[in-house]
Design brief:
The structure holds 2 protein chains of 2 kinds.
Chain A (H helix, E strand, L loop, with lengths): L2 H11 L8 H9 L3 H14 L2 E8 L7 E7 L6 H9 L4 E7 L5 E7 L2 H15 L4 E3 L3 E5 L6
Helix pairs in contact in A: 2-3
Chain B lengths: L2 H7 L8 H13 L7 H9 L3 H14 L2 E8 L8 E8 L5 H10 L3 E6 L11 E7 L2 H13 L7 E13 L4 H7 L2
The chains are: A alpha+beta, B alpha+beta.
Protein name (chain B): siroheme decarboxylase
EC number (chain B): 4.1.1.111
InterPro entries (chain B): AsnC_trans_reg2, HTH-Siroheme_Decarb, NirdL-like_HTH
């Protein structure tokens, strides 16, 4: 990755202009050509560094219901419980984390009722308690990873 | 409310038909084409003008439905492999102040207030740090805590060992299939 790749990646992470020629606008800012911006971004897509360009939706304003949940899963049952939890299409992310509460997953549904139904189902199928940590207040969201 | 309903509610202020709005919503979710005039390319796809597409997207941004039009990077591929959730047990009266300090720190990528579940879980402020390795994340957190009001707060770092499932939000499809 050369210096221009890094500049383009850092600039485009912050957002792509909604204008007639957005890549030309970025090129002007970075002192390169529109063609360079497009080619380098295409290259990064081909390499798998980027998965896509697109909108970051505010999920809540689209009407969804979300929560972060956690479970304390005995080590010997981890694979089995992972299978139970991941079988729900409403489970978006599932991470094993280092803590007594070692399984953390995000549940995304259309309604609060559906969230509660999914969590209860997971409890019944696993015979383990599900801790529910819904978002009460959002202070900051800004995934920016400088390269 | 589904995405479709939300879009339909806003058609009065927009020039695109409800069908075109849904098509636009689905098209941009797939990703912006990497061509000189990407909004024109999408407009041609859905039978609209470039101006209509741009003004509709701008409207969605103003409404807050789209936070940002950017790119989705695979952070692991860029070397950001240490994904840490840092949780804090903050006095209820100080949550806003502490969150404001955390939100200013460059390394913090998310900061949410969530409920305690006592007695098992006393932590009420959750944030994420994406770092290149665990030692770096620990150092960044230590540095952060040295020169601020964060020093005395009870906290824990939960590193992820493994991602067992990861999928991005697919809103137009999720709504269409009723998932």
């Amino acid at each position: 990755m050369d210096a221009l790749d890094k500049k383009i990646l850092n600039r485009t992470q912050r957002g792509i202009p909604v204008s007639e020629q957005p890549f030309a606008d970025i090129a002007n800012e970075l002192d390169c050509t529109e063609e360079q911006v497009i080619n380098k971004l295409q290259h990064m897509l081909d390499d798998g560094l980027l998965s896509r360009f697109g909108p970051m939706y505010d999920a809540a304003s689209l009407g969804g219901a979300f929560t972060l949940s956690a479970m304390q899963v005995p080590e010997e049952r981890f694979d089995e419980v992972t299978e139970i939890v991941n079988a729900f299409s409403q489970v978006a992310h599932n991470y094993k984390r280092q803590h007594r509460l070692n399984m953390w997953f995000v549940v995304a549904c259309e309604s609060q009722d559906e969230i509660q139904a999914v969590l209860q189902n997971i409890e019944q199928q696993s015979s383990l308690r599900v801790y529910d940590f819904p978002k009460e207040e959002e202070f900051y969201v800004g995934l920016y990873l400088p390269v | 409310m589904t995405a479709q309903q939300l879009l339909a509610d806003n058609i009065d202020s927009l020039q695109l038909s409800p069908e075109q709005q849904l098509e636009l919503f689905a098209a941009i979710e797939q990703g912006l084409p990497l061509v000189a005039q990407p909004y024109l390319a999408i407009a041609e796809e859905i039978g609209a003008t470039e101006e209509q597409v741009i003004s509709t997207i701008e409207h969605w941004q103003e409404q807050g439905m789209i936070r940002r039009f950017g790119l989705v990077i695979r952070h692991r591929k860029l070397g950001y492999v240490a994904n840490a959730m840092v949780v804090w047990n903050v006095d209820d009266a100080c949550v806003d102040d502490v969150a404001a300090i955390l939100a200013q720190k460059k390394v913090i990528t998310l900061c949410y207030r969530r409920p305690r579940v006592l007695p098992d879980w006393p932590y009420n402020l959750f944030c994420m740090i994406h770092g290149k390795d665990r030692a770096q994340v620990i150092k960044q957190l230590d540095d952060m805590c040295q020169h601020s009001e964060l020093a005395g707060i009870d906290k824990k770092i939960l590193f992820s060992n493994k991602a067992y499932k990861q999928r991005g939000g697919k809103y137009s499809q999720a709504s269409a299939s009723g998932n």
